[in-house]
UniProtKB/TrEMBL annotation:
Keywords: Hydrolase, Metalloprotease, Protease, Signal. Residues 1-31 form the signal peptide. Residues 61-110 form the DUF5118 domain. Residues 123-310 form the DUF5117 domain. Pfam families: DUF4953, DUF5117, DUF5118. Residues 443-747 form the EcxA zinc-binding domain. GO terms for molecular function: metallopeptidase activity. SUPFAM superfamilies: Metalloproteases ('zincins'), catalytic domain. This is Zinc-dependent metalloprotease. InterPro entries: DUF5117 (IPR033413), DUF5118 (IPR033428), EcxA_zinc-bd (IPR032534), MetalloPept_cat_dom_sf (IPR024079), Zn_MMP-like_bac (IPR034032).
């Protein structure tokens, strides 16, 4: 058998760019490798004195019986463990030295009120690493191997790669004794688990949030260490000295209960499956120096569970066969009992997809065993996948997974389920379907209604734990009018993939008879699971399997049912969250028609005797949010490009521009539905129950924000590129300005909203004319930025400023004179703004790090942040992280 050397973790391409963009908002920092501090004492004023291994006087290696004496609590398993006089020992057999073990640390319990990005509740992950226990003379080291760089042991590059990638040492331990037959060593791990070790403790984010200065040993202890056949579970209670507690600052501390699982990785790694950008899977990358190519080659593997048929012969005959090891998800015992059957159903629904890969009963949801049924069962145990239920007001759910960094094999998952996801589901189901769905016209859904919505979200999150990312291109496969058909939606739901954000059917109109209103596991999901989980007989290599899979993928190319559209890019209008159908303008027109039916009925449908109007206020904001989503879906068509990943053996472009007529239709839609004041949103009867004089600002914010979105330099850059490549077939910047002018500037006496909008248009143009624009992210190329919609452009030397200058002069020349006092003052003000834009009197603001900055308000933000240079977060959706 060949040996392989691998080292480090690596991100590139899409994964790299997503990490770069996310880093501008918040980063989950992985713990840095560090040398173990074995002794911690607290001095005057809370200062900490530390000593590392080797500082204390060494006692020498004793007989096993001299160390493990008296009253001993022993446990056998992966390592035999012993508790003697409050100290914990590991007996490590020689056979497990240098074996790779996956280590995952999770919260067990957290303080009330903990609010840190991505880490809040019991069951959520803090860190994961791979450890190797290595003996060196009279010591044992924990080494942390890395996996990004590799070369096969038969390659001439193997030794070179090995020489260049040394595994870090996380901790060291003196050998206390040998076991009786000298095939194992005994070490004391008490100080290690009690210490402030980043790899098995709080993340840097949490420490910074609560001003943590270190572990208080007097208020910390090891609760239990349990050994099982392939894993060790160490539970600790750690109290950190803290300057800011989420509960009570007078304590000067914050306390957590943590669990660290150490799981033995397979001695023979699973055969990896090489990823393909045309089929959506989470994955990992390695740089391989051992190939025959005349350069290093990046190889990416997908994340998937290891499924092998019990009966390979029957499987090869095309029969459905059970896997050797079933995928099992346990439901957290803390889950309200009425929701348990629906969460289980969401898990079991995926059996339909695994049948496409040749497996039956491949996955199952189960109620977690009671203490009586299995005293050793723990939801933190790394051997078990669990849907954890959080008592939280967060409107969210998410489905992570833990995988073998060598091969991508998924080993376990802890789905996070926040209690208040039900609030989100109620709001969206009502706002998106109540026009045609009388059952949604209420403040409180029945348990059966909510249960079915929970089942849908459960299926979506389980899909993530199977390795499937969001497929934002899926919903584009269904024509808009098909979603008004009862027969079609009864069979297909709202999208070919439950992994899209295609929530509920906002397109169907009263009288259509549509009753199936949300997604289901569909055609794309069956295809992707077949692609990722089909077992190939005959000991084919990963490269040989790739060749076979490429035949399947190429055959399906061009069929929108099997199209995968990645998350994160803003250039392709097909790849959007919360959208439905193949034409955003048509779909959004139907959606707005339904919102107009829903808005006047909010008070009636949510009436609750003796309650205030919080529900009406909340749902009015949801109407605004849904309306804004429709505007965003349409806007992405302007300057948009279609992205279709291909290989050499496929014809046609990977990138081509959105049709000229569609882009024009998008601007025309905005002129009619947004830039023409949407008075239907100003329902005095509803607003009178909660609005205290801010409706003008709300509508202005919607209009101005979307106008700014239309006029981003990156969008204009793509339009100039389109014109250069396609000439008359392109929708140009000149046509965009003409169309916007007709909808915003030209026309009768402007109302208060139109006046705001006209000022915003001039200010946006002023910003394009006088504010430098750039995006700079360390390590990111122009092509990577453009791939995510941040198309670079040198605004100083581009055609943007000549076009903007001409548009401002055109507006100025067409401004009418006279009118009432307010109208006259407005046009005079516009004239002065244009004059200042063409002849600026204030300095140009340049911000390190770059960004898109438009209008007076944006420039004020610029001035306050000249030393920061950050990019605001992408708009977040509520379900899923």
């Amino acid at each position: 058998m060949k040996k392989t050397f691998v080292a480090g973790q690596y991100m590139r391409g899409a994964a790299f760019m997503l990490a770069v963009l996310a880093a501008s908002c918040a980063t989950k920092k992985q713990a840095a490798n560090q040398t173990l501090t074995l002794k911690t004492t607290t001095g005057p004023g809370g200062t900490t004195a530390t000593a590392t291994t080797g500082a204390p006087k060494k006692e020498g290696i004793k007989k096993f019986s001299d160390v493990i004496t008296g009253k001993v609590k022993a446990d056998s398993g992966l390592f035999n463990t012993y508790k003697v006089d409050g100290k914990y020992y590991y007996e490590i057999p020689d056979s497990l030295l240098n074996r790779e073990m996956l280590v995952v640390t999770r919260y067990v319990k957290t303080p009330t009120g903990l609010k840190t990005f991505g880490q809040q509740y019991g069951g959520e992950e803090l860190n994961q690493q791979v450890w190797k226990w290595e003996r060196h003379d009279k010591q044992v080291f924990i080494r942390v191997p890395s996996y990004s760089v590799r070369a096969d042991s038969t390659s001439d590059m193997y030794q070179s790669v090995k020489n260049s990638n040394l595994d870090a040492v996380l901790a060291s331990f003196d050998i206390k004794a040998f076991n009786k037959d000298t095939t194992g060593v005994l070490i004391d791990v008490s100080d290690f688990y009690n210490g402030d070790i980043a790899a098995i403790g709080l993340s840097d984010d949490v420490k910074k949030a609560y001003k943590v200065s270190g572990v208080d040993a007097s208020r910390s202890y090891i609760d239990t260490i349990k050994s099982f056949p392939i894993n060790l579970e160490a539970r600790t209670l750690k109290t950190y000295r803290s300057g800011e507690s989420p509960t009570d600052n007078s304590n000067g501390a914050v306390t957590f209960e943590l669990n660290t699982s150490m799981l033995l990785l397979p001695k023979t790694p699973m055969k990896p499956r090489i990823s393909d950008a045309r089929v959506g899977f989470f994955g990992q990358s390695q740089t391989d120096f051992g190939t025959d190519k005349q350069k290093s080659e990046v190889t990416a593997y997908i994340h998937r569970w290891k499924l092998e048929p019990k009966d390979p012969a029957a499987y090869s005959r095309g029969e459905l066969v059970e896997p050797k090891k079933q995928i099992v998800y346990y439901i957290d015992p803390a889950t309200p009992k009425k929701w348990v059957p629906y969460l289980i159903a969401g898990v079991n629904d995926w059996n339909k997809a695994f049948e496409a890969a040749g497996f039956k009963n491949a996955i199952v949801g189960k109620v977690a065993p009671t203490k009586k049924e299995d005293p050793e069962f723990s939801t933190e145990d790394a051997r078990y996948s669990v849907i954890r239920y959080f008592a939280s007001d967060v409107e969210n759910a998410y489905g992570p997974h833990v995988s073998d960094p060598r091969t991508g094999e998924i080993l376990e998952s802890h789905v996070g389920w926040y209690h208040n996801v039900m609030s989100l589901l109620r709001d969206w189901y009502l706002i998106q379907t109540a026009a045609i769905n009388p059952a949604a016209r209420k403040a409180q859904f029945t348990d059966e209604q909510m249960g079915e919505l929970i089942r849908f979200v459960s299926s979506h999150e389980i899909g993530h734990t199977l390795g499937l990312p969001h497929n934002f291109g899926s919903s584009y496969a269904y024509p808009v009018d098909s979603l008004r058909s009862k027969s079609f939606t009864d069979k297909h739901g709202t999208a070919p993939s439950i992994m899209d954000y295609a929530r509920f059917n906002y397109i169907a109109q009263p009288g259509d008879g549509v009753t199936h209103l949300y997604p289901q596991i569909g055609e794309y999901d069956l295809w992707s699971v077949k692609w990722g989980y089909t077992w190939f007989p005959g000991n084919k290599t990963a490269a040989q399997e790739k060749e076979a899979l490429n035949v399947w993928t190429t055959k399906n190319a061009g069929n929108p049912l099997y199209y995968y559209g990645r998350q994160g890019t803003s250039i392709d209008p097909r790849l959007q969250n919360e959208d439905l159908g193949d034409n955003a303008m048509k779909a959004s027109t139907y959606g707005i028609a339904n919102l107009k039916r829903i808005l006047p009925n909010l008070e009636k449908w949510t009436y609750q005797k003796g309650e205030d109007y919080d529900d009406v206020s909340e749902l009015y904001n949801e109407v605004l949010g849904q309306y804004y989503r429709y505007m965003g879906h349409v806007t992405t068509n302007i300057g948009g490009m279609n992205e279709n990943f291909k290989t050499y053996d496929q014809k046609g472009p990977v990138y081509d521009f959105v049709n000229k007529n569609l882009q024009h239709d998008a601007v025309d839609f905005l002129n009619k539905q947004l830039f023409t004041t949407p008075y239907w949103l100003i329902d005095k009867n509803e607003l009178g129950k909660f609005d205290n004089g801010v409706v003008i600002n709300r509508i202005k914010a919607l209009q101005v924000s979307m106008l700014s979105n239309v006029l981003t330099p990156s969008r204009l850059a793509r339009m100039f590129d389109n014109e250069a490549k396609n000439g008359p077939a392109a929708y140009t910047v000149a046509q965009l300005f003409t169309d916007l002018n007709s909808g915003i500037v030209t026309g009768a006496k402007p109302d208060v909203f139109k006046r705001n909008l006209q000022r915003a248009y001039v200010e946006n143009l002023k910003g394009l004319l006088n504010t430098d624009f750039s995006f700079t992210f360390p390590g990111a190329t122009s092509a990577q930025l453009a791939s995510y919609g941040l198309t670079p452009i040198n605004i100083l030397l581009s055609d943007i400023r000549p076009m903007v200058r001409a548009e401002l002069k055109k507006i100025d020349a067409a401004l009418p004179k006279g009118g009432d006092a307010l109208t006259s003052a407005h046009f005079a003000d516009l004239h002065l703004r244009i004059k200042e834009a063409l002849n600026p009197t204030r300095p140009i603001v340049n911000i390190p790090g770059g960004g898109s900055f438009r209008g007076i308000e944006a420039q004020e933000i610029l001035k306050e942040n000249t030393d920061k240079g950050y990019l605001n977060c992408w708009p977040k959706t509520n379900v899923d992280n």
